[in-house]
Amino acid sequence: MKLNGKTVALTGGASGIGLAAVEAFTAAGARVIFGDINVAAGEKAAAALKATFVPLDVTDPASVLKFRDAAYAQADNIDVVVNVAGWSKVEHFVNTTPDLWDKLIDLNYTGTLRVVHAFLPKMIARSEGKIVNVASDAGRAGSGGEAVYAGTKGGVIAFTKSLARETARYRLNINCVCPGPTDTPLLMSTPEKQREALIRAIPFRRFAKPSEVADAIVFFASDRASYLTGQVLSVSGGLTMQD
Fold this sequence. Notes:
Blueprint lengths: L6 E5 L4 H12 L3 E6 L2 H11 L2 E4 L5 H14 L5 E4 L14 H29 L3 E5 L3 H4 L5 H21 L5 E7 L5 H4 L3 H10 L8 H12 L10 E4 L8
Parallel strand pairs: 1-2, 1-4, 2-3, 4-5, 5-6, 6-7
Helix pairs in contact: 1-9, 3-4, 4-6
């Protein structure tokens, strides 16, 4: 898949799936402007990949607007917007606090809304553009110890489908990738017993590589997905087989 001449704005690009997506987009020939709250890792990745890094906190409306403005300063048009930034904490719901709920909702759900809302008007004006939201199979099938996180990702899925209906008249493509357990720093921070249990539950008996999720993201951003909108693609090694 070639994306020569295309410009991508991506959140959460300093590590994990986001970093793999930056690598995949640059390899496909796209210009990439990516943001992350981790400035040191973002700058390092940008230098290695010849991409543009902009500090970004998706929970801060002003930071999102600065990211948008920086992206448009690099290119007249943003062809693809990818929302990868996200976070989870494994905890039984009964032991969680409203502060944790607010953090998860603001980062995983409202952060996605902020970024899309910032870039959408120019895409509508052009009647051209693609948005790829990264949710999670937790939002499709549930995840023990991640009830609020799963709720936020379910919200991203529903938002993606609803926005796809609203913007189809403008020929925009709005789709969603739902990773299953993926070999990222976030997953590696969970207890080993939990990771072992997950592997036993996955038919392929391994975690996804970040690059495998990135491939799905790039597919939705490519011309090969020009007739797809409102779709949800699981990358889970068969862990979830949803209709």
